[in-house]
Amino acid sequence: MSTPAVISALARSLMAGEPTAEGALARARRTLGRPWRWLQPLSLRYIETFAGRTCPRHRDVVRFLLEDQGFRRARMRHREKLSIAEWLAEPNRMQPVNAAQQWNLPVIETVGDLADWLSLHPDELDWFADLKGLCGKTGNPKLHHYRYRILAKRSGGIRLIESPKRDLKDLQRRILSSILDRIPPHQSVHGFVKGRSIATFAAPHVGRHIVLRLDLENFFPAFPAARAQAMFRTLGYPEQVADRLGGICSNAVPRSVWNDRPPEIDAQQWHEAGILYARPHLPQGAPTSPSLANITAFRLDCRLSGLARSAGAVYTRYADDLAFSGGEDFSRVVERFSANAAAIALEEGFGVNHRKTRIMRRGVRQSLAGIVVNDRLSLRRSDLEVLEAILTNCARFGPESQNRAGVPDFRAHLEGRIGFVKMIDRAKGQRLRALFEKIRFAQ
What is the pTM of this model? Predict the structure, then answer.
């Protein structure tokens, strides 16, 4: 029997059942057909390496065996005697971490189970998961799972909106409602969380001596598909199931999307965006991406909240906006703290846009995501005056006169802006709403 086959079979046996040293030892003995003395310490080392972590991939266990010195010596000593007595199947059962056992997640243990759960044929499931990246290699838009819209950021750079087509969006909504929505977010996270908002994100920083704001670069593309797949394995789903769940929730942008560069976008930025989005990532526009981003950034939030506590500060996050605030003690260490926070973000796979880093002391306007937090939650006077002027002119001259940017649904756009004001300042929001009611929109 070839050594690679033995290693593969042994890896399967270690993974196949309960993650205990006794269980791993028993399965390894069944696989090799002999009670080798070196199997017990090998099983202990396997549990020490992978216990309490995300359920490993088969290739990770194979790598562990190849790098294990004890197993290497056993292979050299018993090369002619090592053989496979019994092949054990890969684990087709849920193996959630302890916390996930309380979340009442749907039990999906095979690829067939997943296809049935999503009401798909197995071939359709593989098509939507696209684990081989076939969609990214075709230039036919009809075969793509997403529609694309490229926007130039005000601060420079490119934002790509990836809107899933109807069938894929339905699958993502099923995953969101039945799996992702059952996972509690970190207490510091306020973006895309039911019952929290941009107001709850800013509120803990009201009246603080100093406020620090950091911005993460390329938030959604920074999450590779592999992290989403690892998250599903953490929830207990077997590798083949987790890979397909992650595949449905991620995307690699086809090269053809980048064929025609708008003249207002820099050529170097265009090229860099093509490279960034070509890797499978969480697409901005998919219903699952915000929740997946919050869940997979849980370790980042834990580390940053711990760093903030150690400095006597408070930490909150709204998507890619990070906010810290504290008193005079925090003020004395804020520059070093900012560098440490950026280093943690980098270690967790995120870059910090240092051009947007702001250290705001009491003497200046302290603003987070457009909300002023110096003494109470409020909006910038200039923003309110501009919106009031737009509404007044809409009432006098018609809404078409103010829709200079060509917003498709200008009425909904205005209602959204008024709703945002009302969330922060109810009285001012009601006054703006009264102006809005005077506008005559075309039927």
Answer: 0.84
